[in-house]
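Shipment paperwork, digital attachment
Item: protein structure file
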Amino acid sequence: MTYSLIIGCLWVLVATGTAMLPMRRQFPIGVTLLIAAPVLIVWIGVDYGWVVAVLALLAFLSMFRSPLMHFYTRARERVR
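Attachment content:
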């Protein structure tokens, strides 16, 4: 198992633990995880190929669908 996959598994465990925290304590950790995810997905893609990277991206989008929809909605409102 490569370092990218080990760190990816740790990322998932931290994200799961963060989801169990009260909302006010989720924010700083969640933003850090949100920023780290693209770097980690690219790293996993370099090690294992684009198919695994797409699967990792889909898992990330599934876990962070609410914050991503919030950012998408706010971005659309600013364009109008």
